[in-house]
Amino acid sequence: MSTPATAHEERITWWTVVRDAIRGTHHDYTAGPIARAVVLLAIPMILEMMMESVFAVCDVFFVSRLGPDATATVGLTESMLTIVYTVAIGLSIGVAATVARRIGEKRPEAAAEAAVQGIALGLAVAAIVAVVGVTLAPRLLALMGASPSVRTIGSSYTRVMLGGSASVLLLFLINAIFRGSGDAAIAMRVLWLANAINIVLGPCLIFGLGPFPRLGVTGAAVATTIGRSTGVLFQLYRLTRGDARVTVRRVNLALRPAIMAGLIRLSGSGTFQVLVGTASYIGLVRILSTFGSNAVAGYTIAIRLVIFWMLPSWGLSNAAATMVGQSLGAKDPERAERAVWIAAKYNMAVLGTVGLVFVLFAGPIVGVFTHDPAAASIGAQALRTMSYGFVFYALGMVLTQSFNGAGDTWTPTWINLFCFWLWEIPLAYVLSRVLNFGPLGVFLSNVHVVDFSSMLLDFGKKLVFTLSARLPVAVALASV
């Protein structure tokens, strides 16, 4: 039994860890207590993702005041933006894993070179997306099943969001550099800045408050792009200032085809891995669009609420990935494996609690975001149904990111390919259209794929993760 003095010391130690994590105190994550290292990384990553979650919920909160068509516009455009997110996250997987490995090897200059090549790749992709999005926005909305009224009010929103995709790609990529190097507190401050600007500016441009013009749903896109672009400028400032673990200098700015090719090889499977999941999301939204704007609006609200808590859980998962990458760089696979299970236990406890709250109070929670009875009913049904799989999803998130951090991006890719494309999409169509479950059939398919993919990850976790940690599976990492 602990004495009062011991309990006081524990409190001091805990608050010291929290303070150091938020301040971004430099720490060697390849040595010392593993649980403390995980917490030091996880706290700023969770706070970073919580701010992104607040943005996602606030955005749909204000847009939903404009009606179901405006909310459906956000949902349909978001489903198209998942392609951009896919490339951004895929590139981030390769860049973060490479940077973490180089930092673990005590080679910061090599980490800086990899960072620059990753940013160059992101800019190239953003240019292509911008051209396609700006010129083809109405056709893309029509392809997604948008009604004529949604296309009328939503084309400008889609143009701005896709045209400003460079801010999305760079925000993901550069924050991945900071997280991979262990500078998670910098990544946290970047998203706080970007999303704080968006949250303040969003309602001003949507409703025309004060001196701002009333832009409707397009105002949400303008505010988002301005906020994210400001965050990117701050990222570049911190990346070149000289006090971060990865510092980009003029000598690092030259394009290096060999390093870029290595990143493409490593990120290619990572991008395909994410593409499998995001393409399935587009497929689900396409199926839902056949049930009308209320179905898409309700699902959009529910999925934003799910993201509100999923993103902080990604923070814990990213902490595990950083620990794995740096530990393997330091040639300590046992430390990498122990860090994964600590992060998994924390994540399952947190997300399981959130899932229980959503199951019990789905109706009142969704009711805050829409006064449309039909959209609210569908949204509550979606939120409650998807929450049943939260505990399994928490485990799968940590294990997936741990594989990625080790450089083994193919294991979760094959699992996602089977679970999402060969199971979820066909199941959603059969349940909703053939068996006439309606939108509920789509929501049920989400739960089944989460549980099934987590069981597959759990089944192979010891063998596959141990192999990826101890053997040179990530050949691309070694060649970058």
Overview of this structure, please?
- This protein has one domain (30-479).
- It is mostly helical.
- The chain has helices spanning 4-23, 34-63, 68-104, 108-143, 148-163, 165-181, 184-207, 217-241, 257-289, 293-329, 333-367, 373-387, 390-406, 410-434, 439-470, 475-479.
- It is built from 16 helices and no strands.
- The model is unreliable at 4-12 and 459-480 (pLDDT under 50).
- 84% of the residues lie in helices and 0% in strands.
Q: Can you give keywords for this protein?
A:
globular; 16 helices; 480 residues; mainly alpha
Task: Summarize the entry for a quick read.
With 480 residues, the protein is mainly α.
How much helical structure, as a percent, in the residues? over 70%
Mean pLDDT: 80
Strand segment tally: 0
User: How many independent structural domains?
Assistant: 1
Radius of gyration: 22 Å
Task: Give the amount of beta strand, in percent.
Answer: under 5%
Low-confidence stretches: 4-12, 459-480
Total number of helices: 16
Largest sheet: none
- The backbone outline, from C-alpha atoms, is globular
The structural class is mainly alpha
Distance between the termini: 52 Å
Q: Summarize the helix and strand pattern as letters.
A: HHHHHHHHHHHHHHHH
